[in-house]
Amino acid sequence: MKRKKNELVEAIVEGLQDKKGRDIVVADLTDISDAVCRYFVICSGGSPQQVQALAHSVGDVCREKVAAKPIAVSGLHNSMWVAMDFADVIVHIFLPELRSFYDIEHLWADADLRNIPNID
């Protein structure tokens, strides 16, 4: 089952990279007993339009590569912070100022954080 989750995380990262998502972080929460999911994938987009494009790209790539779709998506109406719930993986796509304000990746200090290099 862990292999399937890693495939989903990698598809999410691919979807974010396809639309030039910035500062992607994968937070592995699998060893944290009270975590709300197994992984957070966090990313920044430069504008509301890019945040929306990133969310659509994640959905498309996940359907194509791993036959997965989110069970819920929130925030597309203003595209400042979009959350995509894939049950065991939650994707957060932020405008930089909101990402900095909420600082989600540091809320889980015990998580294993993997920084994904930006594609320029």
Record keyword descriptors for this entry.
120 residues; alpha+beta; Beta Polymerase, domain 2; 6-stranded mixed β-sheet
Question: What do you see in this structure?
Answer:
By secondary structure, this protein is α+β, with helices and mostly antiparallel strands. The chain has a single domain, classed as Beta Polymerase, domain 2 (2-Layer Sandwich), CATH 3.30.460. The chain is built from 3 helices and 6 strands. It has helices spanning 2-18, 48-66, 96-102, and strands spanning 22-28, 39-44, 72-74, 81-85, 89-94, 112-116. It has a 6-stranded mixed β-sheet. β4 (81-85) and β5 form a beta hairpin. α1 (2-18) crosses α2 (48-66). The protein starts with a helix and ends with a strand. 34% of the residues are buried.
Topology (elements, then pairings):
Elements: H1 2-18, E1 22-28, E2 39-44, H2 48-66, E3 72-74, E4 81-85, E5 89-94, H3 96-102, E6 112-116
Parallel strand pairs: 2-5
Antiparallel strand pairs: 1-2, 1-6, 3-4, 4-5
Helix pairs in contact: 1-2
Summarize the structure.
The protein is of the alpha+beta class and 120 residues long.
How is the biggest beta sheet arranged?
6 strands, mixed
Given the C-alpha coordinates, what overall shape results? globular
CATH architecture: 2-Layer Sandwich
Number of structural domains: 1
Can you tell me the CATH topology?
Beta Polymerase, domain 2
The total of beta strands comes to 6
Report strand %. Answer: 25-35%
Q: First CA to last CA: what distance?
A: 33 Å
Spans with pLDDT under 50 lasting ≥5 residues? Answer: none
The helix tally amounts to 3
Within the largest sheet, what's the order of strands? 3-4-5-2-1-6
Task: Tell me the helix content.
Answer: 25-40%
CATH H level: which superfamily? Beta Polymerase, domain 2
Spatial extent as radius of gyration: 13 Å
CATH class: Alpha Beta
